[in-house]
Amino acid sequence: MVQNRSLIDESGKRSDGRIIDELREVKINVGIIRNADGSALIEFGKNKIIAAVYGPREVHPKHMALSDRCVIRCRYHMSPFSTDTRKSPAPSRRETEISKVIREALEPAVMLEDYPRAAIDIFIEVLQADGGSRCAGITAASVALADAGINMRDMVSACAAGKVDDKIVIDINDTEDKEGGADMPVAYMPNLKKITLLQLDGELNPSEFNTCLEEGIRGCLKVYEIQRSSLMEKYFGNEKGLKE
Amino acid sequence: MQEVKRKYVIPGDIVAEGNFKPLGNVFRNGNSIVATRIGITESNKDGTKVIPLSGIYFPRVNDIVIGKILDHSSLSWSVDINSCFSAHLPAQDIFGRDFSPAHDDMGSQLSSGDVIVARIAIFDRTRDPILTIQDKDLGKIPTGELLKISATRVPRLIGKRGSMIQTIEQATSTRVTIGQNGIIVVSGKDKEGTNLALNAIHIVEVEAHTSNLTQRIKQLLNVPESDVENDDTQNNHEINETPMNDDKVISNDIGKEMGMMNSDGTK
Questions:
Q1: CATH number at residue B26
Q2: Among residues A72, B86, B130, B192, which is most buried (max CB within 10 A)?
Q3: pTM score, two decimals?
Q4: Residues in Cβ contact with B260 at an 8 Å cutoff, skipping those fewer than 6 apart
């Protein structure tokens, strides 16, 4: 990748004014879709993404059902108005791939064997995209799954890290993704300390890779705190913390 | 066994550490008991569990459910029980063992759209639930307002020893039939009472996990404090006392509610 301009200035600020280990502002609203069993709206910087979870419910067509566990069906979709130029609403190669990796990032957290012969449908709709939408989508979908009351081993939090101007930074935005050196989305189960998604676009040497992964996980832990507080607020309001 | 504090949890949170028996909505990870749902932890000498605050209904044998007849084949009715499985009510359950599809008209007994109270007779992971209506107080529900609440709110709606539902029934002169699958039928003499009961049930659903709920419902229904037996408003943390996930208690309460519905008004 060729870098045309400096993405980090002399004072260490990035193109959107953040420092290298700073997340964009993240807000999560839980339970925004009445018809869904669980839902969440995430605003991850300029990203605006809705995740809705339905189920466990009956599988149609029936032959898709598995006798010992449930199936997760995931659809990641970008709205035609989510980007600068109109995006065709038909599912693209990229969306099909992201749907698959999101499903595989969430599957280790969901206790599939608790719901044999059933299906869980996850819909992730990107209303406004600004880089890192798969991570924001996973984060929102995980909150929506918890909101739907589906048995989970842990939450899944996701955040990207990457290389910009030879520096490792967290939470890559759209400009840094397109013009930067590397982009590494990481999804992580913070309590079980397990990685469920690791992708890398770009080039990193082994030491950069390790730093990048560590920074990605650190970003996930920050995202987890926001997931946690949004769920706590929805379900327990101001009555936070321990109850004797 | 050491005492565990009651706390609010989300999936992945550690509920307890040590030698506790995982009872419900928790799993063991090494030395820790970890929550799998959003809810409130509860532990006693038998073990530790999480009382969930959200989730769909998952059938269990002997649950009393309210279902809607969808269709019938030549041997059974299929019933929507608000779950990820559609249930079956065998024709033999109504016509007896000598049922014959050639002689007996299934449509004469139950047709699509009818609502029934039934018990889950058989269910396991491999097959859809089989229902029966051959117990006392089970069968077709002729009239009433049908509404759906989250199945996790059903124990709260019944209340401690049936206190909540008794309050609502007495104050609104209605009969409320509760299925453990979260489907409820309210039948009353006048529209006003029915609407009041529906409103109260809605409030219980929305505010199920909050304290002093019975008191607020009483205020809504204009019930004087002394009128209702089994008053549990003294307890500031009612939910602590409510056996939300205790199957036995729920079944007993539901049985009582069914009794109330079909008897001559005696409790």
A1: 2.40.50.100
A2: A72
A3: 0.86
A4: B169, B175, B267
pLDDT for position B239: 37
CATH number for the domain that contains residue A55: 3.30.230.70
Ranges of beta strands (E only) in chain B are: 6-9, 14-17, 22-24, 26-29, 32-35, 39-44, 47-52, 64-72, 76-80, 87-90, 115-124, 127-132, 139-141, 145-148, 174-178, 183-188
Per-residue pLDDT, averaged over B256-265, amounts to 36
Cβ-based neighbour number of residue B30 at 10 Å: 7
Mind telling me how many Å the CA of B37 is from chain A's nearest CA? Answer: 6
Report ipTM (2 d.p.): 0.90
B115 vs A83: CA distance, rounded Å: 49
At B131, list the tokens: 């229902």
Q: Which amino acid is at B36?
A: T
Which chain B residues touch A if contact means CB-CB below 8 Å?
5-8, 10-14, 25, 27, 29, 34, 36-38, 40, 52-56, 58, 84-86, 125-126, 152, 209-210, 237, 240
CA distance B203 to chain A (A): 15
Share of chain A residues as helix, strand and coil, in percent rounded to the nearest 5? 30, 30, 40
* Count of structural domains within chain A: 1
Closest partner residue to B52 among A149, A189, A244, by Cβ? A149
